[in-house]
Specification:
11 strands; 65% strand; 9-stranded antiparallel beta sheet; mainly beta; two-stranded antiparallel ribbon; 141 residues
Length: 141
């Protein structure tokens, strides 16, 4: 169900992805988002992407390329530094350059405690303001 500024739409959509661990330090992923949908009024735009990650000791480097069907292709890059095995510093950059789309730089922090993880990110969205995202994950022991 989607409801944005009083415009409502109902239906379903499919996403699929695969993650391949090429080696201990290198991973490759593919994703297709909203590649089939049954929404009545408008079609949710699909997005196809490919990403990779490289783990160098306590530094994780990431990048992806996205091909949305309703916009220009764009890339994202990011890095995460692990401090003392439980504190994570993150930074990212995206190449989306739409007018009033927000800043291109993002930042975040993570904290891992036993079987819980807390995450925070700072994402600017131009005229819409700044988004502060919080996450809590409970991990299997």
């Amino acid at each position: 169900n989607e409801n944005i500024l009083g415009s409502q739409n109902t239906g379903y959509s499919e996403d699929i992805g695969i993650l391949i661990k090429v080696s201990k330090i290198f991973s490759l992923g593919f994703a297709a988002k909203n590649f089939m949908n049954s929404f009545k009024k408008d079609v949710i735009p699909s997005n196809y992407g490919i990403g990779l990650s490289l783990k160098l000791n306590k530094l994780l480097l990431l990048g992806d390329l996205n091909y949305p069907c309703d916009n220009q292709p764009h890339a994202n890059i990011g890095a995460e530094y692990e401090y003392r095995n439980n504190i994570f510093f993150r930074a990212g950059y995206n190449t989306v350059s739409e007018q009033n789309a927000g800043g291109n730089v993002t930042a975040g922090l993570g904290l891992a405690l036993k079987n819980m993880r807390f995450d925070y990110s700072y994402v600017p969205y131009g005229d819409l303001g700044i988004t502060h995202r919080f996450g809590i994950s409970i991990l299997k022991p």
